[in-house]
Specification:
two-stranded antiparallel sheet, 7-stranded mixed β-sheet, DNA-binding, flat, alpha/beta, homodimer, 2 domains, Arc Repressor Mutant, subunit A, transcription (chains A, B), D-Maltodextrin-Binding Protein, domain 2, 307 residues, 14 helices
Chain lengths: 307, 307
DNA sequence: ATGAGGGCATAAGCTGGTCTTATGAGCGAG
DNA sequence: CTCGCTCATAAGACCAGCTTATGCCCTCAT
């Protein structure tokens, strides 16, 4: 439903109401450098082009963004706010780019990473951005699949470094824990659980039908193990995104990684329900073939993930 | 530094490597509808245009995104991953749009909202999206400022509903708590604190110079109160974004709302340091002039924020 | 079997936006 | 007073992406 309505709201298309990425980057440059001309130089266009671009952006948004003066340009109050929203769009685009770049360099690249879906979707783009910042020349490729697939790719030499999120380490691989991820119970804000005062007991959770990923997914494994194999599905969906959308629309409670619902929680499209009597932690691990300690770029990436 | 390097990495400009918003929306439509033609119809272009757009996107990314067949198109594995990254970009753009729209409708609009900076930046766009989904015709305007400014706007009748994040409710206003926000201590992953095993004592926190917002900001108030006015600044910056950037670059530890660092924590550009012996909770409140209970769209918005 | 319908691809031509170059004008510092 | 920085405006070139008009492929129903 949230999906459908977002769709509808978007009828006259976002792209017509939101400036394009180049314009947003230009705005960020103006904010940072304090001058249209300097910003233009940075993004590699001429000053008049920058001037016109900013102006048409202001026309499009119906708000003055910068105060122009003969000695530079500063953001207006509204401009500062818009710039922060723009920054979020640009950051998402940078993550997109980092991911896509890794996907493109599939063959013959220097560092081939295999990762489980959740990690590939939510964490890797950020790591790749950081890696790219430190070692701009490293070409990284990305293969995504479940734990078994990751293990296969590593053992067959088709990948150099893997990331898995299951409970166990596939045999033949060495691993190190790089982060702990907590699964949390979430509902739409309208759900009765969102109003309860007492924390939820594990038994209640086990008895309630939930919106879940399919059996065999990393998330489902952890939940089943924590509840003793009892998790009762209300709906089973095959992608994290679909589960989220379903939960947001109010179809029922769900259990998801806190990694993937950060935005939804902040925006209060979902609320987190405290649970007691059950440990929903899981480890995220970097893995590699036993004996083949990561070296070079793989080692670099690994150190970035652990900080 | 992260800033500067992102800059550098972006030299050949993101906009040239990331498809524009229209293309990303089209991709999402294809994913959802399973056909290029249907997706084209939904976004209001012809089928050949959609075909060409997707194709040039595949060329740009160097990856096949959809499997075309005479009976429809499905995403490839890589396409599914790319679509999820695209979705995040589009969501950020939708938040941008919701915010910008509210900023534009400054005058003569039906619902005028005044909010503190943090709330305006991180929460309001999401709420406005939700409000727009339920009441597409409501024009909302947004004014941002600190608590005092919000109070003024409400009392002078220039705003209908306010949101503040301080410890106290400005006099003359009624309030209701809509959410609890936790301040958390964060450092770059490389900082020594990121490796400590013991939780941090309040005294240690008070004795360590921190990267902070300026005195008078909501965040700083809460921290000063919690530590007994002792917070020691390493650097004082005037925007949350600047504080974040500084912390990410490793300049030192900082204390920030968990709202604003969700992404950074997920991407492990920052890590959270547990603290004991000090309560860093703060309430986010909706406020209105005493006696003037919110009605109509204001009431609607309020109910969305509380779920 | 055979035609209708939905799916996608290709080709040709037009349109519009956005860039560049060239120039002018305001303000401040030496 | 003039140099150097800022921004604005004007005119023309260019290119990306759209539409319209086709054609082929496959499936399903008659």
């Amino acid at each position: 439903m949230a999906e459908a309505e977002a769709q509808h709201a978007r009828a006259a298309s976002l792209a017509h109401r939101v400036p394009d990425l180049a314009a947003l980057e230009l705005l960020l440059a103006v904010a940072r450098l304090g001058s249209l001309g300097a910003a233009a130089r940075e993004v590699g266009i001429t000053q008049p082009a920058a001037s016109s671009r900013i102006r048409s952006m202001e026309r499009q948004l119906g708000v003055a963004l910068v105060d122009r003066s003969p000695r530079g340009s500063r953001l207006t109050d509204a401009g500062a706010l818009v710039t922060d929203w723009a920054r979020r769009v640009v950051e998402a685009a940078a993550a997109f780019d980092a991911g896509a770049r890794a996907l493109r360099d599939r063959r013959d690249s220097r560092l081939r990473v295999a990762a489980s879906m959740t990690i590939a979707e939510y964490l890797l783009p950020g790591w790749l951005l950081a890696l790219h910042a430190e070692r701009p020349d490293t070409a990284v490729s990305l293969l995504a699949g479940n734990s078994t697939k990751v293990a296969e790719l590593l053992l067959s030499g088709e990948a150099d470094l893997g990331f898995v999120e299951g409970l166990t380490v596939p045999s033949g691989l060495d691993a190190t824990v790089i982060a702990r991820d907590r699964l949390i119970v979430v509902t739409a804000p309208g759900h009765p659980w969102a109003r309860r005062r007492r924390t939820l007991a594990a038994r209640e959770l086990a008895e309630t039908p939930l919106i879940l990923r399919e059996r065999g997914s990393g998330t489902r494994q952890v939940l089943d193990a924590a509840l003793g194999g009892l998790a009762r599905p209300l709906i089973e969906l095959s992608s994290t995104t679909a589960v989220k959308a379903s939960a947001v629309s109010g179809a029922g409670p769900s259990v998801l990684s806190e990694l993937v619902v950060g935005e939804e929680l902040a925006m209060r499209r979902l609320v987190s329900i405290p649970v007691e009597g059950v440990s929903l932690q899981r480890e995220l691990r970097a893995v590699w073939p036993t004996g083949h300690r990561p070296t070079g770029p793989a080692r670099e990436l690994l150190s970035l993930t652990r900080g």
